[in-house]
Design goal:
disordered N terminus; single chain; mainly alpha; Growth Hormone, Chain: A
C-alpha cells in the first residue's frame, strides 16, 4: 500500500515487476494471520455449544440448554452476558491493541508487528487450552485479541506493499481467504472434538489454534520487511535491495524513486492520526470506516457455518470484474437471502418447539450459505482490500489502525449483544441485518470508486480527483500543497 506523493513522472503501470517466488511465499506466510483470526472466530461458536464446556464455565447456560431443554424460548437459550463476554473479549482486546500496533507497524516495521502478533497468539492458545476457570479462559481470549489487533493491522499493509500492482488484489485476498479457511477448519475440528468421550474435546479445539499461531510466528521470522517500511524508517539502500529482490529485476529505479518521495512526504507528517482529519483524507477515511461499520458483516462472527470456500475465486474476479460490481451484486444476494430467512422463521418457527420441517430447515441452511458465500466474495475480503490500498503512505498506519479499530469495535458490540438481540428481536434480527445490507449497497453505488488495477501511488490523480463527489475534497488541497512544495524548491 504505497504512495501518497505527487506523481510527476512515469506511470506506475510501467514498473517492471515479476511474480517472484519470494513474493508468493512471503504473502502466503503473512496471510496465516488471517488463518489464526478465522480459527479464533470459528472455534468459539463450536466450543460454547459443547455441554462439558458449558457445564464447567457457564452452568446457568448448561441448565437451560441441557437440563431444562424445551422450557425456554428457542431464541433465548444462550442469552447469557458471561457467555457473550467469552466471545466478545477477543474483539475488545483487539480494539485496544490496534493503537499500539499502529505505532509498531510504522516504527518497527510490518514484519516485527506480525511477529508480535504470533507471540500473543501462542500465549492465548496456552491459556485457553489449559483453562481451569473462567478467568483463565478470558485471559486467553484477551491475549488472542491482542494478536488479532497486531495481525489485522500489519498483514493487510504487508500484503498490499509487497505485491506488484497487477496482482495486489489477488495476494491481498489471501488474508480473507485464510480467515474463511480458518473458520471452516475450526468448524470441522469442533465437529470432531465434540464426539470425544471424557468431556475434554473443547481443550483440543482451543489448543489446535496453536498450529496457525506457530505458522504465523515462523512466517514472520522468515519473511523480509517491505521496501516501503524500510525506506520509511531510513533504511533506503536496504529497501532498494529488497525491492530488487521481490520484483525480480534490477530495473526498479522509477518505483524506488516514487517510494522515496512518498516516504519524504510521510516523514513531514508528525501526527498521522491528526492528519487523517484533514479534508484531503476525508474520502479514504469515510470509505474505510463505512466498509467496516456495515453491521451485517459481523453476524458471521456468530453464524459459523462451513458453507463458504470460494474466496480463492475472489482474487481473479475482483481484478477483472472490479470491486464495485462484486459489492453491489453481493448486496442484492445478501439482502434477499436475509429477508426470506426472516419470513420463513417468522411463519414456521414457534418459540418453544422445534416445528421447522426438514425441507424448510434445509432451505434455511441454503439461504444462510447464500448469504455467507456472497459475503465471502464481497465485503468480507474487499472491505480489507479497499481499505488497505487507498491510504497514502503518510497516513497509512493510522488509517489501517482506524480501519481495524472500527471493525473490532462493531464486532465487539455485535458479539456482546447478539444473543440478547436474538432473544428480543427473534426472527426480526434478520430484517435488521438486511436493512444494513440495503444501506451499505446504496453507499457503495454512489460513493465507493473503482480501484481495480490502479497503482496505489496514483490513487489521488486517477481515483479521487476523477470521482464526482470526492474530487471536491482533494483537488484544492493537494494542488495547493503541490504549489507550495514547488515554491519552496
Amino acid at each position: 500500500m504505497a504512495g501518497g506523493g505527487f506523481i510527476t513522472g512515469s506511470s506506475s503501470n510501467n514498473f517492471e515487476a515479476k511474480i517472484t517466488p519470494i513474493v508468493i511465499i512471503s504473502c502466503i506466510m503473512a496471510a496465516t494471520g488471517g488463518l489464526m483470526f478465522g480459527y479464533d472466530v470459528g472455534v468459539s461458536g463450536g466450543v460454547t455449544a459443547m455441554p462439558p464446556f458449558l457445564k464447567k464455565f457457564f452452568p446457568a447456560v448448561y441448565r437451560k440448554t441441557v437440563l431444562e431443554k424445551g422450557l425456554d424460548s428457542n431464541y433465548c437459550k444462550y442469552n447469557n452476558q458471561g457467555l457473550q463476554l467469552f466471545t466478545s473479549s477477543l474483539y475488545l482486546a483487539g480494539l485496544t491493541a490496534t493503537f499500539f500496533a499502529s505505532y509498531t507497524t510504522r516504527v518497527l516495521g510490518r514484519r516485527l508487528t506480525m511477529l508480535i502478533a504470533g507471540f500473543f497468539f501462542i500465549g492465548g492458545v496456552i491459556f485457553n487450552a489449559a483453562a481451569q476457570n473462567l478467568a483463565m479462559l478470558i485471559v486467553g481470549r484477551i491475549l488472542l485479541g491482542f494478536g488479532v489487533g497486531f495481525a489485522n493491522q500489519a498483514v493487510p499493509v504487508f500484503l498490499s506493499e509487497i505485491a506488484p500492482s497487477r496482482i495486489r488484489g489477488a495476494l491481498n485476498i489471501l488474508f480473507s481467504l485464510n480467515v474463511t479457511i480458518g473458520i471452516l477448519f475450526a468448524n470441522l475440528v469442533n465437529y470432531g472434538t465434540s464426539k470425544i468421550k471424557g468431556g475434554w474435546g473443547w481443550r483440543l479445539s482451543l489448543g489446535l489454534a496453536g498450529i496457525p499461531a506457530l505458522l504465523l510466528t515462523i512466517g514472520a521470522i522468515l519473511v523480509v520487511d517491505t521496501p516501503n517500511s524500510l525506506i520509511e524508517r531510513g533504511r533506503t539502500e536496504e529497501g532498494k535491495a529488497v525491492l530488487k529482490k521481490i520484483r525480480g529485476t534490477d530495473n526498479v529505479e522509477p518505483e524506488f524513486l516514487e517510494l522515496v518521495e512518498a516516504s519524504r512526504i510521510a516523514q513531514e507528517v508528525k501526527h498521522p492520526f491528526r492528519n487523517l482529519r484533514k479534508r484531503k483524507n476525508r474520502p479514504q477515511l469515510v470509505i474505510s470506516v463505512a466498509l467496516q461499520v456495515s453491521i451485517y458483516r459481523h453476524i458471521l462472527i456468530i453464524i459459523n457455518i462451513d458453507c463458504y470456500k470460494n474466496n480463492d475465486s475472489v482474487s481473479t474476479t475482483s481484478n477483472k470484474v472490479g470491486r464495485r460490481v462484486l459489492l453491489l451484486e453481493a448486496g442484492v444476494q445478501m439482502f434477499l437471502s436475509q429477508v426470506v430467512i426472516a419470513i420463513i422463521l417468522g411463519f414456521k418457527v414457534a418459540d418453544h418447539s422445534d416445528n421447522l420441517s426438514k425441507g424448510y430447515a434445509i432451505f434455511v441452511v441454503i439461504l444462510v450459505c447464500t448469504f455467507v458465500s456472497a459475503f465471502a466474495w464481497s465485503i468480507g475480503p474487499l472491505g480489507w482490500l479497499i481499505s488497505s490500498e487507498i491510504f497514502p503512505l503518510e497516513t497509512r498506519s493510522a488509517g489501517q489502525s482506524v480501519t481495524v479499530c472500527v471493525n473490532l469495535l462493531f464486532t465487539f458490540v455485535i458479539a456482546q449483544a447478539f444473543l440478547s438481540m436474538l432473544c428480543h428481536f427473534k426472527f426480526g434480527i434478520f430484517l435488521f441485518f438486511s436493512g444494513w445490507v440495503f444501506i451499505m449497497s446504496i453507499f457503495v453505488f454512489f460513493l465507493v470508486p473503482e480501484t481495480k488495477n490502479i497503482p496505489i501511488e496514483e490513487m489521488i490523480e486517477r481515483v479521487w480527483k476523477q470521482h464526482w463527489f470526492w474530487r471536491r475534497f482533494v483537488e484544492d488541497e493537494y494542488d495547493n500543497e503541490k504549489v507550495n512544495a514547488d515554491y519552496q524548491l
